[in-house]
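User: Please run a holo structure prediction.
Assistant: Happy to. Please share the sequence and the ligand.
User: Here you go; the ligand is adenosine-5'-diphosphate.
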Amino acid sequence: MRLTKTYEELLAEMEELQIQLQEAQDAIEAIRTGQVDALVVRNGNGPQLYTLKSADQTYRVFIEKMKEGAVTLDKNGVILYSNSQFASMIGLPLPLVIGIHFLEFIPAEFAELFKKLSNKGWQSDSKGEIHLKNKNNQRIPFLLSFTSLELDEGKALSIILTDLTVQKETEEQLRLKNELLEEARRHADKMNEELEDIVVERTRDLYLSREHFKFLADNIPVIVWTTEGNGNAVYFNRQWYEYTGLSLEDSKSERCQQALHQDDLALLRQVWDDAVKNKKPFHFEYRIKRAVDGSFRWHLAKGEPFKDEAGKIIAWFGTSTDIEDQKKEMEKKDEFISTASHELKTPLSSVKGYVQLIGRQNTLPGTVNQYVAKANESINKLQHLINNLLDVSKIAAGKLKFTMDVFNLSDLVNSCVEDCRHMYGAFNISLEVEDCLYVLGNSERLEQVLMNLISNAVKYSPDHKEIIVRAERKNDHIVVSVQDFGIGLTEENRKQVFERFFRVETGRFSPGLGIGLYISSEIIKEHNGTMEVVSKLKQGSVFSFSLAAATSA
Ligand code: ADP
């Protein structure tokens, strides 16, 4: 038998082996991808048919298709099997992966950990996270799950590799978001704490101011009440309960009217309705029954609306002050004024008569004539004063009545100013009067008003001698005004000048009783007109009255 082979024989053998290798590689690929489930293998006993168990085939396909990497290592750590997924994770073609030592893909810093995990994996299932490096030396985080396998060829270690890149990124983003969330929570907590502090402080302030209000309200001799925006009563102070003897429940109901004088109810309702409609403060006088003796006593009620930012009324606050004693005092004063002025009137008239008789004597020396003239002047002033006091009494008794005719107010203003120019020679009284300003009125009384305004302008302008009198038509009204540049009024005093006996304390003496403007305003009221004043302290005032225009007679 020949032991050596010829060159041709060896060449043919090699060709045969190459064909077998190619067939084997194709078979492996077909098996891997599940294209075949049986194959014929030729051996010394001739061709034999090997069928792949269907379960094995399923797993093979499954492993190929799953998105995790899967490798099997022999006991030296060399890769026996790898799915295509692992090869693409690492960035190498599959044939190059098989046969490589797995440690090749482990960065140095993870080598120790990998050894530990794989040693454990040989014993029992284990897991761990490590980084692998791909062909470009980039680190990729993986979760490695180790399982040892009993293969026909011996023991092997299977590793399933899950790419954790997306998970890690998500975790990082989640961590950042959590940090932001935590920061926001801390911020919110801080704000909450601050808010709580503010609320505590405000609550304390509120409590204090409410107690303060209640203490004051309960300890003043004035009735205090508050209502909701719609007028429903909310609160009455102690004075109210003591005064009226009503309970809170009665006070909040219609029974509250038991404490009021029946004759005042209609006016009360009207004033209240007007105030609610116009959202304006109100004041009026009415009688409240004092429980202790059952007497009705006069009170001055004042109410004020409190509005929110949108202008809606959210509450009404009010007071009622017992003015019975002052009213009685006033009545006594009125009575005295009435009696005194009547008593003075008659003797004064006779004095005036006698002085006039003396004045008519032709034989009187010149000095006596001068005295008579001076006496006449004083008598006139006294008469003017007494007439004013009588007017006050008439107003108090509701008896200020006079006849009215249509007349030309322009004439009246012209002649009044003419007189005043003679009376107050030091003053420059200028006149701006429209013609034909007809009104229905009492010319004497309106003259009294105008003279009063001009004499006040003179009296309260010590340094500025300029006065302007105007009479003009404004729409369907005639407005007469007197402007001066004198001492003027504060806002507070401006509101009070038409009250009876009101005088501003200026520190300098100026004669008067504080009744001229009161009488004037009552006269204008009687004409259904209005009177007002615009004034600025130290700059002067404009007093005016307005009457409905009438058509000429
Ligand atoms: P009186 O007799 O005091 O002048 P009036 O009723 O006419 O009384 O006026 C009341 C008060 O109003 C005066 O005391 C004065 O303080 C103030 N008053 C009136 N007219 C003027 C004015 N033209 N300028 C400044 N204050 C005035």
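The first strand starts at residue 38 and ends at 43.
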